[in-house]
Amino acid sequence: MKFEIKKKSKKARVGNLALVHGDVKTPAFMTVGTYGSVKSLTNQDLKECNAEMILCNAYHLMIRPESNLIEKAGGLHKFMNWSRPILTDSGGYQVFSLSNQTKVSNHGVEFKSPLNGNKLFMSPEKSIETQLYLGSDIMMIFDECTSYPSNEKDTEKSMELSLRWAEMSFNANNSNMPLFGIVQGGMYLDLREKSLNELLKYNFDGYALGGLSVGEPDHIRREVIEAIGDKLPANKPRYLMGVGKPLDIIHAVNNGIDMFDCVIPTRNARNGQLFTNYGVLNIRNRKYEEDLRPIDQSCGCFSCNNYSRAYIRHLDKCNDILAARLMSIHNVYFYQEFMGQIRSAIDNDSLEDLIKKTENNYISI
């Protein structure tokens, strides 16, 4: 992996991330394909939407179809026929999201399989082993994410466990595959700084901020990003995990963040919420029933070039799966175009203007 910063404008950076399966321009947004697929979209759709990198989940792929099968297929890229970079989440988030079904110890986490209830064990070593089988371009350490709210004592205990797992993940990586560390510590800035300082000892290939977008208010999340974002190593990629509203993204870029992922573009699309250059459009609103304009007249995506709001709304009302596909194409395309606008604004030293425009369009979501 090679990371090069091309331009800086205050804290914001434009860069290039060179990986085994191709280059990724940063700031970058990764579309989420948890099971090795972005729901309703083909890989050709993703390429036509200019997606340079996607995110898949090691925990889910370990359970189904099992990493051994993927290894036999020659790795995840060949199994899913995706030639561009893949970042794999370690499964640490599932410790949080499935917390009522897990038993956590210093050595890892015992899960119940969502398929048949069988006991499964995910350790840092197992997570890294799985990600190596998958053939990820970037792997993530196994970590624990605290809920919000969480008191300082419990948050510190969780952060210390994540640091233990970070060391175990680091030692388990016997390859040249890039491995990112994840800064935890909840909403406590002193714990965040302690976590970062300890992770720096391992000289990870990149550093992420985890444990955000877990129910905390927007202003608290931004305080954490503003306080910690620019303290992550300047010569390495900085990744904000799971944060995906346009306004959150652009504010984070303004604080030095390079990489993002979130399910919002595709999940919200399947529920009729479309992102445009003028704000959010809810296709299920009755006022679009006879609206023959495209979703966004300034958008160049396949959906906007070929179909009207009225037609897509009609499909959605009929529960036709084509509606989800067309809306997902639009949102994925919009997010890639939005990141391109951000990169251009940094290049032109006009990011503040784009922030103001984005605030005007998205301040309510």
Secondary structure topology:
Layout: E1 2-9, E2 12-19, E3 22-26, E4 28-32, H1 43-48, E5 54-57, H2 58-63, H3 67-72, H4 76-80, E6 86-89, H5 92-97, E7 103-105, E8 108-112, E9 119-122, H6 124-134, E10 138-140, H7 152-172, E11 179-183, H8 189-199, E12 206-209, H9 218-228, E13 238-240, H10 246-253, E14 259-262, H11 264-270, E15 273-276, E16 279-282, H12 302-306, H13 309-317, H14 321-347, H15 351-362
Helix pairs in contact: 6-7, 7-8, 10-15, 11-14, 13-14, 14-15
Describe this structure in words.
Helix 7 runs parallel beside helix 8, helix 11 packs antiparallel against helix 14 and helix 13 packs across helix 14. The chain contains 15 helices and 16 strands. The model has no long low-confidence stretch (mean pLDDT 95). The chain has 365 residues and is of the alpha/beta class. Helices cover 41% and strands 20% of the residues. The chain has two domains: 189 residues, TIM Barrel, CATH 3.20.20; 93 residues, no CATH class.
Tally of separate helices: 15
Q: What class would the helix/strand composition place it in?
A: alpha/beta
**Strand share of the residues?**
15-25%
* Level-2 CATH architecture of the largest domain: Alpha-Beta Barrel
Rg, Å, rounded: 20 Å
Spans where pLDDT lies below 50 across 5 or more residues: none
Distance linking N and C termini: 36 Å
Q: Report the CATH topology name of the largest domain.
A: TIM Barrel
Largest sheet: number of strands, sense, barrel closure: 8 strands, parallel, barrel
Percentage of residues in helical conformation = 40-55%
CATH class of the largest domain: Alpha Beta
Q: Strand sequence of the main sheet, in spatial order?
A: 4-5-6-10-11-12-13-14
Whole-number count of domains: 2
The rough form would be described as: globular
